[in-house]
Amino acid sequence: MSISFSGLASGLDTSGWVEALVSVKQEKVSSLKVDLTSLQTVKSTLSSTRTVFNDLRTALEKITDRKFGGSFDLFGKNTAKSSNEKLFTATATGDAVRQDYDIAIQQLATYTKATSKETASAVADEETKLSSIGITAGSFTVYVDGVKTAIDIEKNTTLGDLKEKLTEAGIDINVDENGVLNFSATEEGKKISVGSTTDSSNIVSLTGLSKQEDGTYASTNSLFKANISSKLTSETSGFNTQITEGTFTIGDATFTIGKNTTLSSLINDINNTEAAQATAYWDDATGKLSITSKKEGASYINIEAGTSNFTDVMGFTTTERDADGNITSSKMFTEAQELGKNAMFTINGTSMTSTSNTVSSDISRIAGVTLTLKKVSDEDDASGKLSISQDTSGLIDAVKGFVSAYNKTLEKVDEVTATGADLARETSLSSLKNTLRTYANGSNDSNGGVYKLLADIGISTGEADSSNISTTNTNKLVFDEAKFLKAMEENPESVESILAGENGILTMMENTVEQSLKASVGFFDVKQSTLDSDIRKMEEKITKQQAKVSTYQAQLEKKFGNMELVIAQMQQNYSSFLTA
Q1: What is the C-alpha separation between 341 and 1, in angstroms, rounded?
Q2: H/E stretch holding 337
Q3: How far does the chain reach from its first CA to its final CA, in angstroms?
Q4: Which of 222, 337, 366, 428 could link 179 by a cystine bridge, Cβ 3.0 to 4.6 Å?
Q5: What pTM, to 2 d.p., does this model score?
Q6: What are residue 218's DSSP bridge partners?
Q7: CA atoms within 13 A on the CB side of 529
Q8: What is the DSSP secondary structure assignment for residue 5, as one 8-state letter?
Q9: Contacts of 501 (CB under 8 A, 6+ apart)
Q10: Complete DSSP assignment for 388-448
């Protein structure tokens, strides 16, 4: 970088002269930068225009992609409507035949339930902690001939501890062989009462203590040792027989019991394993395990013994083993399972059965339709009508999307090709717009359908009347949904043909738009390539011109610098001459 000191010797503003002279040269650079900005603006406009054409192509494809079938075919979609959704609901695919069916339901499918054949848990005894059977700590009140005694129940209070406290109050308790908790007066003739509004323990409500005709109290719910927190293989687990470690099978799933497996964790494992095809539940009130099938219908739940004796202890199987613990024989107690029922129903009077309330087409013989049975027919809801019809909702949305995209596209082209606009001279773009408009407003006889114009099916530039005939915008489409639906109802094949047939109007539009967006050879890629080249050349010109300006400035600064040196030397010589 050069440093100049303007006019030190001459007293002239040489820096100002350099700046003025350079600015003249810099004007050409500035002019080139304006041209570059203009090119970049045109490129940006081209990009935003390409975007609306892309959106139009997407909107067109939603309709014309029916040629690929399946979910792409908006014309082939069906809807299933139940006249009585209390009885049944239904869904339909494009394979369904569009007609009506009468359906009545005689029986719903239910689930098979397996319950322990006998109580699996031992009844509670004096060593049983009250907390282990769900009784909470707190106060508990009894009365003997009206004399109140408050009993405190703590976290570790056992049934034996409770018995001692109640004996002191004059009440005897015991748990019978069925797990029923009984209260009676110690002295004959004494009257006892149990429970108070001030009690904070849940013993009365949990056990369901109720007064008997003879004045004693008995629990409605039985008390058992085992609970969901019990470690299954523990000697103190509370089951009638100690459960061994090992495996067993429910459904197609094999489960393993280890030394730390609790009843709760095992139940969660069963319920969360899909292959088990069942859910499990422990009933504290009966001391039994229940297993319910996830599949409806009259089928047994597969329960098999394994290396553990769990299914034997729960009363689902009986197994014989040799001295080494190997199974020699095993059978499932089918009588421990209450079989579910198969669904029974009629379609147009024909009786049918299904193992599930979800009835597929291979069972109902209604192609493409799945029924979901909800309720058995009765006097109020004897039957319902299933109507299969064309689902026009997706098609309506797609047509609305096309109309919106078409209008935005033509509006955008008018904007960018207007006089003085960025793409004003792009005749190809204007021609593209005119082609789309011709398709939208022109007649199409090539598909041989009833409808020849988009206007015939509710897609038009709007109705002209005396008030708007001069201002009707032929660039803008409007959608008459009611007219479109009527056309679909009267002749859906012709609607499909004029829109998305091989030579349909939207098919031709899509082909035209696709050509403009085609890589390398389409209008947008060709134009962008040209702009990129022009921008690159302009940037090179600016760089070269800026370099010339910099060189010119350096030359001026050098010349004026040399001039100042010469003047300075002359001044020095003159001063020396005067002083000689």
Answers
A1: 97
A2: strand 337-338
A3: 40
A4: 222
A5: 0.68
A6: 182, 210
A7: 9
A8: -
A9: 447, 449, 507
A10: EEE--HHHHHHHHHHHHHHHHHHHHHHHHHSTTSTTTT-HHHHHHHHHHHHHHHS---TT-
Supply 458's token pair: 């509710």
DSSP secondary structure string, 158-189?
Answer: BHHHHHHHHHHHTEEEEE-TT--EEEEESSTT
| Token duo for residue 378 | 């009765």
Classify the phi-psi angles of 347: left when phi > 0, otherwise alpha if psi is within -120 to 50, otherwise beta: beta
pLDDT in tens, the chain (580 residues): 444 445 555 566 778 777 888 788 888 888 888 888 999 999 999 999 999 999 999 999 999 998 888 888 999 999 999 999 999 999 999 899 999 999 999 999 999 999 999 999 999 999 999 998 889 999 999 999 999 999 999 999 999 999 999 999 999 999 999 999 999 999 999 999 999 999 999 999 999 999 999 999 999 989 999 988 889 999 989 999 999 999 999 999 999 999 999 999 999 999 999 999 999 999 988 899 999 999 999 999 999 999 999 999 999 999 999 988 899 999 999 999 999 999 999 999 999 999 999 999 999 999 999 999 999 999 888 899 999 999 999 999 999 999 999 999 999 999 999 999 999 989 999 999 999 999 999 888 766 678 999 999 999 987 654 454 444 567 899 999 999 999 999 999 999 999 999 899 999 999 999 999 999 999 999 999 999 999 999 999 988 988 888 888 888 878 877 877 887 788 777 777 777 6
DSSP string for 78-144: EEEEES-TTTEEEEE-TTS-S-EEEEEEEE---EEEEE-SS--BPBP-TT-BGGGGTPPSEEEEEEE
The encoded tokens of residue 425 equal 């001279």
